[in-house]
Design a protein that fits this description.
Chain B: It comes from Guillardia theta (Cryptophyte). Chain B: InterPro entries: Sas10/Utp3/C1D. Chain B: This is Neuroguidin. The complex is a heterodimer. Chain A is of the alpha+beta class. Chain A is about 30% helix and about 30% strand. Chain A has a single domain, classed as Alpha-Beta Plaits. The longest helix of chain A is centred in the middle third of the chain and has 12 residues. The N and C termini of chain A lie far apart (about 50 Å). Chain B is mainly α. Helix content of chain B is about 65%, strand content about 0%. In chain B, helix 4 packs across helix 5, helix 5 packs antiparallel against helix 6 and helix 10 crosses helix 14. The longest helix of chain B has about 35 residues. The chains are: A alpha+beta, B mainly alpha. At the A-B interface, helix 1 of A face helix 12 and helix 13 of B.
């Protein structure tokens, strides 16, 4: 379990407001001073406290990467204004990780059949399969 | 037939010989006179036969050498043709006729071979007849231009050439059958006959090899034979002089692992420090900042791109390996890793450790010092 006493330093860099996509985006650099990795859940909660966001599931963290040499890592963060904006603008796999969307998979055979059927047609209009 | 042709040859020689062209030989004067008379005879066809007999008697003295010289001068093809003719006839007489007689009697149990034999016989016979006719034409001085005989001869020759590979294929069978036939009187039991068809392993050997060549290299002759056969095929086989130790898969693995560890230990910092101390060779210093400028630039460029576009770029295998190695170098400054390496080689005998144990020892490195019991990450999401 991590405490504030562990002296993990979070820095936000290259902060940018993106009203077109209805989000705020910035780079998060973490200095953890010990050789273990930090979870995204914990980061989301901390950021929601700092930025005073009611729904922490609107914060999307991705691209966590350890710097060369260890003890430091960097991540990309998007904070959306509302749920609709998030649903429209975010890729599905990230929505699923934030529990905003459920992945419903048919059986693999059915999926493959559908894929093969869709090969014959061009465009979105044949979504009825 | 042959005799008559010989007579004709002599006749021809007699006719074409002029007193001026006769070479010096025994009884040359006599022969010259006789040839003169012979020449006159040719013009008169009715007396042809009588005079030929006379000529034959006259030319009994004529030397062989003379005859040959004359023949080669006038008709060089003739001698070759005659030889061919002789051989063909001999074949017909001796081999085929006997076989066909036997087949007619029903002694030889060949079902597919009979047609082949008959065909061959017929071909040879027709070839001989055509040849003889051709010779007859030539000797009588008749023109052979565009005569169908030549065409026929060529045809038959082609057929015979095509038959030849079949002949070699059937040779073994035919020899066996003939053998049986010759020995039917001596052996009566069927079992004995069956044994004649036993397989012959010596037939499998290459033409240069002997039966003893395939054994383990005891004899020099065997090796040489084997080598010769191999050289003929173009493959190099080293000579088996002394016994070599056979290395098992596991043995080879262990040997290779040991070599790898020895290499690693040789490169370790401690060993290098010792070498520096005791060896007289000059010390190699890393040129700081010489080659790393490019790499730093590249790294900076990559990070800038990533931050601007909010995406992570793939690191190639080579890069990853390089980074790993650099990390290792950095860690070894403290010297922790080197002790790990040394345990493999000197302190503990690596052969005593099982695979699992050695794996565990390898994994434990300086990084794991940080993994304390309280700080263990839980795998569930949202556990904090």
């Amino acid at each position: 379990m991590l405490d504030i006493n562990d002296n993990i330093v979070l820095k936000t860099k290259k902060f940018k407001n993106n009203p077109l996509l209805k989000r705020k985006q910035f780079l998060l650099s973490i200095d953890r001073k010990k050789k273990f990795n930090i979870s995204k859940e914990w980061l989301r909660i901390e950021l929601s406290k700092y930025y005073r966001i009611k729904d922490p599931s609107l914060i999307f963290i991705f691209g966590l990467k350890n710097n060369f040499g260890g003890f430091k890592c960097s991540a990309f963060v998007y904070i959306y204004y509302n749920l609709e904006a998030a649903r429209v603008n975010e890729p599905k796999h990230r929505l699923i990780k934030n529990n905003l969307m459920k992945l419903e998979l048919q059986s693999s055979k059915q999926r493959k059949e559908k894929k093969n059927k869709m090969k014959k047609y061009f465009g979105n209009k044949n979504k009825s399969f | 037939m042959v005799e008559t042709s010989r007579e004709k040859v002599r006749n021809k020689a007699a006719n074409q010989n002029t007193p001026s062209s006769t070479p010096k030989a025994k009884g040359a004067v006599n022969s010259a006179q006789k040839k003169k008379s012979a020449k006159k005879i040719v013009d008169h066809d009715k007396e042809h036969v009588k005079e030929t007999d006379q000529a034959v008697d006259a030319f009994a003295d004529v030397s062989q050498q003379l005859r040959e010289e004359v023949l080669t001068a006038e008709a060089p093809d003739l001698i070759a043709m005659l030889r061919d003719f002789k051989s063909q006839i001999a074949e017909v007489r001796t081999q085929l006729s006997a076989d066909t007689e036997r087949v007619k009697e029903g002694a030889l149990p060949t079902s597919n071979g009979v047609s082949y034999l008959e065909l061959k016989l017929q071909l040879l016979l027709s070839y001989c007849t055509n040849l003889s006719f051709y010779l007859f034409l030539k000797l009588n001085g008749m023109s052979i231009m565009n005569h169908p005989v030549i065409k026929k001869l060529i045809e038959l020759r082609i057929f015979m050439e095509k038959m030849r590979p079949m002949d070699t294929k059937l040779k073994y069978q035919m020899d066996k059958l003939l053998k049986i036939n010759t020995n039917t009187e001596s052996s009566t039991a069927e079992q004995e006959n069956a044994l004649r068809f036993k397989p012959n392993p010596e037939a499998l050997l290459a033409p240069g090899e002997t039966a003893g060549a395939r054994e383990e290299g005891d004899e020099e002759d065997g090796e040489e034979g084997d080598r010769d056969a191999a050289d003929k095929q173009g493959v190099y086989r080293p000579p088996k002089i002394s016994a070599m130790h056979f290395e098992d898969k596991e043995e080879a693995k262990k040997r290779r692992a040991h070599e790898r560890k020895a290499k690693k230990a040789a490169k370790s910092e401690i060993v290098m420090a010792l070498r520096e101390q005791f060896d007289d060779a000059p010390v190699e210093m890393e040129s700081i900042g010489a080659s790393s400028q490019y790499k730093d630039e590249e790294l900076a460029h990559r990070t800038k791109f990533e931050e601007d576009n909010f995406l992570r770029l793939q690191v190639s295998k080579k890069e990853r390996h390089r980074l790993k190695q650099m990390k290792r170098k950095g860690a070894s400054i403290d010297g922790f890793e080197e002790y790990d390496n040394l345990t493999f080689d000197n302190v503990a005998n690596h052969q005593d450790l099982s695979e699992q144990e050695s794996k565990i020892l390898k994994k434990r490195s300086f990084e794991d010092v940080g993994r304390l019991p309280g700080n263990k990450k839980s795998k569930k999401r949202g556990a904090r």
